[in-house]
Specification:
The protein has 194 residues and is of the alpha/beta class. 36% of the residues lie in helices and 21% in strands. It has a single domain, classed as Peptidyl-tRNA hydrolase (Rossmann fold).
Length: 194
């Protein structure tokens, strides 16, 4: 399907995790669904999905939130790729990234998992790392706080003030990747802000 993309927002299920840094991928995905005035419905692939367009006349997007925990996101993603007959090269995964400063979005295609267990599981389940990642910066934990504790905490009050802009950037970048390609999106989002 040349006109179809699978866009996956990673996170953990349930209200207790909803505001965690680890769930920023799902937060951005919810924004994409809101923009398209669509809502999520459960799918047999153990995910909640919604259908949208990247832009008014752009390609169709299947927005998906796995119903599993982050570390076992791969099976639902692989099942959705099979169900919709989408190649992994047309998969976009939105996820939190410790190695990117907070309030920054970095985009890349392919590569390893970089220690991110959700990405690791998707690579294992699909047999490839050849998909696009929208890396939503959450920054590094302060002091000696373990990374696992840091990503499972909600954003600070200062971060929450800026978070809507970060989510807008991640959603805009995703739409641009699907509509105009990764290079066009990188040119826009990898350029320093004034």
């Amino acid at each position: 399907m040349d006109d179809l993309w699978l866009v996956v927002g990673l996170g953990n299920p349930g209200p207790g995790y909803a505001g965690n840094r680890h769930n920023v991928g799902q937060m951005a995905l919810s924004l994409l669904a809101d923009r398209a005035s669509t809502s999520f419905k459960n799918h047999k692939a153990n995910a909640a999905i919604a259908e949208a367009r990247s832009l008014a006349s752009g390609p169709k997007l299947v927005l998906a939130k796995p119903n599993t925990f982050m570390n076992v996101s791969g099976a639902p993603v692989a099942a959705l790729l099979r169900f919709y007959k989408i190649e992994p090269s047309r998969l976009i995964v939105l996820h939190d990234e410790l190695d990117v400063p907070f309030d920054t979005v970095k985009l890349k295609f392919g590569g390893g998992h970089g220690g991110h267990n959700g990405i690791r599981d998707i690579i294992a389940a699909t047999g490839t790392g050849d998909f696009t990642r929208v890396r939503i910066g959450v920054g590094r934990p302060p002091g000696r706080q373990p990374a696992a504790d840091f990503v499972l905490r909600d954003f600070s009050s200062d971060e929450r003030a800026t978070l809507p802009n970060l989510l807008e950037d991640a959603a805009d970048a995703t739409q641009l990747i699907a509509a105009e390609g990764l290079t066009a999106a990188q040119l826009k989002f990898h350029t320093a802000r004034p």
